[in-house]
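Shift notes (night). Ran Permease while the centrifuge was going.
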Amino acid sequence: MVGRSPGPAHVNPALGVSLKILSALAFTLMAASIKLASETFPTGQLIFFRSAFALVPLLAWLAVTDTVVNAVRTHNVKGHLLRSIIGATGMVLGFSALAYLPLTEAVAIGYAAPLIVVVLAALLLRETVRAYRWSAVGVGFVGVLVMLSPRLGSEALAEGASVGAIFGICAAFCTAGATIQVRRLTATERTGAIVFYFTAVTTLIGLSTIFFGWVMPTPGALAMLIGIGILGGIGQILLTESYRYADASLVAPFEYTTMIWATLLGWFLFGQWPQAAVIAGAVLVTASGIFVIYRERKLGLERRKEVEMSSQRPG
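Came back to this:
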């Protein structure tokens, strides 16, 4: 997540929530397209199109909102490279999970990422995590295990059906790691730079696989591949803008609307309906994630109040 905090002149909660819901739809449409394309095209080729054509709307957006040179200026190339490597690894794993799993299941497993962020923030950023959030994380991980349970039985293991689940949970860890690195970058880097360098590096990583089994697309397939990138770029813009118009604590829970879109698209495109265990686990993970967001908002308000009070004390 690389959204910026809204300034007073831009506060519009309804618009912020609407943009967030639209971003969730764009990303879910992109995921469904990737799942369709993964039947024909290798992962490296999908990464290239996902990243290269995402640059089209992103650069257009940067040109409108800021000069591109200012937007992408950086003093931390190593930090961007680390974020890009982690993110690219997560992209490979996530795309692989989509190839093996029903769309709804792959999306639901991804909900583990915000919970993993809490753990990594405590370990790597030395953030204070109190009992309430640890309890929510624990419940969330129980939900993840419930979602994974159909893939962890001896029969599923023997048939290789657990491969997609392993890819999915590893992708969630990478997403969480990328989020931690983004938090570090936001201390000195602009939003445009964080988005641009990640997209540019993953484009090059995808292009580097061109001699490893790329498939010549038909005109229709080429349009779908380009659409994957365009949807990704539009989704990123909508996501970033949503945090400009409303507080993160209000906007973030609407990320879970991806489950609605994924269920509908999974049913209409692939004839797949989520298993009961996936639904039950997703409910637990979603509830835990929303509680974590609520606690972070409450703690943020308390810290802001303490800062304001300390600034008013006579020096």
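Residues 53 and 226 are 6 Å apart (CA to CA). The chain has one domain: 10-312.
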